[in-house]
Amino acid sequence: MALTKLFAVFLICLFSFYSKTAKSQYCGCSPILCCSQKGYCGIDDDYCGSGCRSGPCRKSKEPLDRIVTQEFFDKIISQANNSCAGKRFYTRDSFINAANTFPNFTSFVTRREIATLFAHFTHETKHFCYIEEVGSSGDYCDKNNREYPCALGKNYYGRGPFQLTWNYNYGACGRILGVDLLSQPEFVTSNPNVSFGTALWFWMNSVRPVLSQGFGATIRAINVMECNGENSGAVNARIRYYRDYCGQLGVESGANITC
Ligand SMILES: *[C@@H]1O[C@H](CO)[C@@H](O)[C@H](O)[C@H]1NC(C)=O
Ligand SMILES: *[C@@H]1O[C@H](CO)[C@@H](O)[C@H](O)[C@H]1NC(C)=O
Ligand SMILES: *[C@@H]1O[C@H](CO)[C@@H](O)[C@H](O)[C@H]1NC(C)=O
């Protein structure tokens, strides 16, 4: 009799052990937490590092500053004319500083993503020559936008590597970067951290979501008109830079390169 009772207790213990394990392996973590290899929710490296199953896993195998070396950056900017404004403005360190303010960028970045990003930087800025749109006209103020009202006398033409344009983009981007770009849009051309920050803001919102579809999809995300046959020269230039940087960084360029 006593033995049967003991056996029942043993069974209950065994059952609760298994159900606990099963439950922890289910891992219905909140979206801001990582599900660890063993199925527990948490946020530090034990959960988000290697073996992480879901959530904001830190998948990057390599720190960003080992991918974007000074040599890699200099090889690009050295091709810009000495009279370029960008030559006295953009630096490799300012790119790294800006990237570090986007933890989800640095956590997942790969060599192929850097080849992609810098191919577009190179094309958009002409090897980091330009820091703002050339020959802009108009104030790019959408007066109907109540959330991000234009400041008196300020102009929201294209600035930064990806030409942040319009008050509502300056407003939304500034909010993420923690700088008031509506009242001081010229921060984008006076502080290189902010300048690269605007480019990464655009990248995270509009380009990274299509990154896995191949280089062509990233061209479309940046300039849909080029892909509609309006500027095959520009498309080809972007692809040429991309292949070059993939080669320099030692990665395959992948499928679906054109758009
Ligand atoms: C650099 O710019 C100057 C002034 O615009 C121009 O005269 C010169 O030819 C340019 N040099 C190169 C290598 O493009
Ligand atoms: C971070 O990036 C990964 C991969 O691109 C994505 O799945 C995840 O939702 C992102 N997390 C946040 C908080 O944006
Ligand atoms: C850029 O960011 C770095 C790191 O946060 C900082 O030390 C540096 O002063 C910043 N540069 C400017 C011009 O704000």
Question: Strands, helices and their partners?
Answer:
Blueprint (H helix, E strand, L loop, with lengths): L1 H25 L7 E2 L5 E2 L2 H4 L15 H4 L2 H8 L14 H9 L2 H6 L2 H15 L41 H11 L9 H4 L1 H16 L7 H8 L1 H7 L1 H18 L10
Antiparallel strand pairs: 1-2
The structure holds 2-acetamido-2-deoxy-beta-D-glucopyranose (3 copies).
Q: Which stretches are poorly predicted, pLDDT < 50 over at least 5 residues? A: 1-24
The helix content is: 40-55%
Order of helices and strands: HEEHHHHHHHHHHHH
Ligands bound, unique: 2-acetamido-2-deoxy-beta-D-glucopyranose
Question: Rg, please?
Answer: 24 Å
| Nearest-integer average pLDDT | 88
The CATH homology group name of the domain at 28-60: Endochitinase-like
CATH first level of the domain at 28-60: Alpha Beta
Total of DSSP H or I helical runs spanning 4+ residues: 13
Number of strands: 2
Sheet bearing the most strands, described? Answer: 2 strands, antiparallel
The outline comes out as: globular
Give the strand order of the largest sheet, numbering strands 1, 2, ... along the chain. Answer: 1-2
As for the CATH topology of the domain at 28-60, it is Wheat Germ Agglutinin (Isolectin 2), domain 1
Distance between the termini: 77 Å
User: What fraction of residues sit in β-strands?
Assistant: under 5%
CATH architecture level-2 label of the domain at 28-60: 2-Layer Sandwich
Query: What structural category characterises the helix and strand content?
Result: mainly alpha
Active site: 124 (proton donor)
Protein name: Chitin-binding type-1 domain-containing protein
Pfam family, one: Chitin_bind_1
Organism: Eutrema salsugineum
